[in-house]
Amino acid sequence: MELLVVLLIIGILSTVALRTIDATRDRSLFDQTTKEMNQLIQAMVGNPDLTYDGRRVDFGYFGDMEKLPDSLRALVKNPGDTDWHGPYLRLIADTADSSYRFDGWGHLYTYIPTEATIHTFGNGKFPMTMKIVDDTSQLYNNIIAGTITDIDDNAPDSAAASGCTLRLYYNNEALHPAPRVKVPSPGGFYEYSPAGADTVPIGIHKLVAHIPGESLTRYVTVLPRSKTIVDFKFTSPFWKLRMVGEPDTAPGGKGFLIHVANYGTQNVTVDSLRFLATSESLYMREFRIGMDWCGTPLLPGPPGYGPGGTVPFTPPGVTIAPDDWVELYFNDFRVTPTGVGDTSVRVVGDTFKFRFSDGSKITAIP
Q: Is 313 a domain residue?
């Protein structure tokens, strides 16, 4: 009787031990399979942890081919495409060339490109499915956008914008033998996006902005479901007129004088300037070009020139030759449009922005 009890206990302990061993083995194979499936996904769309100078540099098979592979074999063997730069999956030494196609239990992975999924039957108890990406559109339909400005932070108007171009060069030249060319809108904004019938796949793409006489190049890292902002600032001005030096403050700090030069190669004629902005709602009542007071100073009552107001020059305007300049004097700023019942205020430290009739913009801080 005692012998039967001992045998029963041994049998129970053996069963428990075998189940524990099986569970431990399954857990190990589960972890191994999970790791392998993640490696397959990274081979397809890149490892986000591989960066250089803070930017992701690995986009795997998709980064070169601009599509998911037709089969897992394409990750290690060139399907016959000149843009293939694999192998994208590094095999462990002394393993069979086809080992990457099998899970830890020896079952073939099921890879469905159209659904962007990898599936394994596992041990029969715990099948696994991993998505390569939530939606394949996230690999294609991204956005690159930004603005173009010149050395003075001026944006181009319609005339200057028409002379600007942007060229987006894709990695896969077989699919995109020519760059995608765009012209920025007035104001300097541009965008590559699905809304503009553009394909912007994940990867690293070259973007070149050009104006007459100058080109700027950026290498743009595009991540899944992203909007990447790339701004360009040229060292050349869009406009021929620019301020020379710093403003000279008038006595008492209630006005200032600036010198505006023509940096172009042809004469520039302007007949007005417009106040785009001031630090406060101030209204100017004295203005002159050189010694010409242009109808000022204004008497109390008629409105002065404030934000959005246009200051006329002496007809038929002022012509500035190349490398020449004119002197502009702004004075007697008031807090009310009519200048009735108030006195001039100091403008030192205020910011004034002007646009001339030729489109040139100048910012002055006396």
A: yes
